[in-house]
Amino acid sequence: MCGIVGYIGKKDAAPILLEGLKKLEYRGYDSAGIAVQETQGIALVKKKGKLNSLEEILKQKSPRGNVGIGHTRWATHGKPSTPNSHPHQSSEGEFVVVHNGIIENYLELKNQLKKEGYIFDSETDTEVIPNLISKFYQGNIEEAVRKAVALLEGSYAIAVLSKKEKEKIVAVRKDSPLIIGLGEDEYFIGSDIPAILDHTRSVYILDDNEMAVLEHQGVKTYTVEGEELDKEVFNVDWEASMAEKGGYDHFMLKEIHEQPETVKKCINGRLTATDVQFDSFNMEQEELNEYNKIYIVACGTAYNSGLVGKYAIEKLARIPVEVAIASEFRYRDPIVDENTLVIVVSQSGETADTLAAVRESKAKGARIIGICNVVGSTIARESDDVIYIHAGPEIAVASTKAYIGMITVQYLLAIYFARIKGLLKDDKSREIISSFRRIPEQIKEVIEKNEAEIKAQIGNYAERENIFYIGRGLDNAVVEEASLKLKEISYIHAESYPAGELKHGTLALVEEGVPVIAVATQPDVIDKTLSNIKEVKARDGVVTAVVTEGEKDLDDIDYRFEIPATNDLLTGILSTVPLQLLAYYVAVERECAIDQPRNLAKSVTVE
What are the Glutamine amidotransferase type-2 domain coordinates in residue numbering (predicted)? Predict the structure, then answer.
């Protein structure tokens, strides 16, 4: 996720671009840059680091012109650095591009362009775009852009400047947001509404495979095939603070709703019909067979993601997995050697305890796979291999979309390992992967079908002092994270237990009116979970169940939240979503500081 801005009008572009980038800095803060059309050409100014680094440069010398584009970066391809910063230009500097998204076939395109003599200065996927435009340009920038994007696979929102056609910006969108602001004799581009809200409240919202051409005399919109469109003007009535959150009351809610896109980005380019592939590393069967144990090491929500990962890897690949809390790991002198594979999970890639576990494990000879969200982070650099979750910036302290990204990657690893070992045959693999591809749309369905019902039931939870979560197998892994989410943001005491353990002590805490939330999605143990629900109801507890659509054997429950049918292994993604919403709306009812809960920080960089 990155932020894009653009301006064409009568005013000086650079200050407007910088102002817009400040409104979008939550979308990325690894580096930033602007490009402004000057009399003699296009001036580029870009810098690694947060936006104030760019601002300091512009205070010294700012390009002058009334047409420009800008970008604030969240690194995906290539570490944070000034050369990898946007905007990027073609080899000869005739075309300049900013881009939000991921070009999945960039390497193939890059290699072909290199053979044709095009030069690349960065590690990014984006740089193929201006060079493709240059290749196809024959006097018409719009046509060159159309031909270029026709070759791109993946997601993108792009804005293009050209020395050849100076008073013009061309923008295209596919699977990444882009809006066009309509002002008085001036026009704007933004990834999100906040970028342009100080200047206009009239916008075009581009849909997938649509193009906009901005000139001084106005804006025209087209399909990428060239058919002119008659777009409806959307009038924004949000407050500025709401606009940063996309119209949501809190970043956490926005990030819950972004989870379909998170999963989509996480699996894009990594799934074939029957296999999982990673561009970052490869492992042969002989090497995998040498590992007699896997550790998944992490903290907090990342640790809880490892519980799902353990279940999936053991289920499919039949390799013993231990999930270890990073803050305890190195102090117990772990039994780790060259026959151990250590998977470390950290959203920020800077978690101090997890980083210590990386170094301890490497010293003992283990191979390290890092699962991170932040490109170029310390854990990403120090791991032997790294898999990025591509969730984009997560602003709320309580993780939602990053957690979904973490478990998605661990599902991918489970399939990958099982295929290497020959334990997952083509027909079964094809069925799981087919189900995986439907998960993004099913997350949307879960939200649409359950959000209103969850809001209606909040009174049953918000005034309680204790709430319990139960589940079996994979469902037990899910409720660990669900209870943590409720504690983090609502400050209600919540605990999760394997459902079968209720009778071993916890049942003493269940009395009339106590809420118990049961996740029951696994067919092989659902009868056992239902028996545990009956135990709760016999003590007058109030039971809410998360179940698969059509589940009928639930006469004893008080409330139910449903998820669509999917492969049994993948329910861990879908069943998480209503429980995130439940935690969120309970915290809203209790008037808690949801995005910044007390005593907590987003990235824990001290032990």
Answer: 2-217
**In 475-591, beta strands by DSSP E:** 493-498, 515-520, 542-548, 559-563
Please determine whether the domains at 242-424 and 445-606 fall in the same fold group of CATH: yes
pLDDT at residue number 30: 86
Between CA 128 and CA 90 the distance in angstroms is 8
- CB atoms closer than 10 angstroms to residue 540: 11
**Rounded Cα–Cα distance for residues 581 and 52 (Å):** 35
Whole-Å CA distances, 561 to 451, 504, 551: 9, 27, 11
The CATH fold of domain 445-606: Rossmann fold (3.40.50)
**Are residues 155 and 176 in contact, defined by beta-carbon separation less than 8 angstroms?**
yes
DSSP-derived secondary structure for 386-438: EEE-------SSS-SHHHHHHHHHHHHHHHHHHHHTT-S-HHHHHHHHHHHHH
For the segment 58-99, what is each residue's pLDDT rounded down to a tens digit?
Answer: 999 899 999 999 999 988 888 889 999 999 999 999 999 999
Catalytic machinery residues: 2, 602
What is the C-alpha R_g of the chain? 25
110: Cα within 13 Å, side-chain hemisphere? 15
Give the DSSP H/E element, type plus range, for residue 322: strand 321-325
Name which of 171-180, 312-321, 474-483 the model is least confident about.
Answer: 171-180
Q: What is the architecture, at CATH level 2, of domain 242-424?
A: 3-Layer(aba) Sandwich (3.40)
Provide the residue type at 83 as one letter. P
220's enclosing H/E stretch is: strand 218-223
- C-alpha dist (Å) from residue 483 to 135, 402, 480: 54, 17, 6
Greatest CA separation for the chain:
81
pLDDT band at 170 (very low <50, low <70, confident <90, very high): very high
Please give the structure tokens belonging to residue 115. Answer: 């053979």
Alpha-carbon distance 265 to 405, whole Å? Answer: 9
Q: By the 8 A CB rule, do 586 and 517 touch?
A: no
Residue 465: other Cβ atoms inside 10 A: 7
Q: Which CATH superfamily is domain 3-236 in?
A: Aminohydrolase, N-terminal nucleophile (Ntn) domain (3.60.20.10)
Cis before 597? omega within 30 = no
> CA torsion 189→191→196→201, rounded to 10°?
100
Helix H or strand E segment including 71:
strand 67-73
Instruction: List alpha helices for 61-163, DSSP H.
Output: 106-115, 128-136, 141-150
Contact 26, 244 (CB under 8 A): yes
CA distance 282 to 276: 11
How far apart (Å, rounded) are the C-alpha atoms in residues 92 and 365?
A: 47
The pLDDT confidence band at residue 606, using thresholds 50, 70 and 90, is very low
Residue 44: φ, ψ to 5°:
-110, 135
- Domain range annotation of the chain: 3-236, 242-424, 445-606
* Cα separation, 94 vs 174, whole angstroms: 24
**Element (DSSP H or E) covering residue 455:** helix 426-456
Tokens (6 digits) for 579: 């429980």
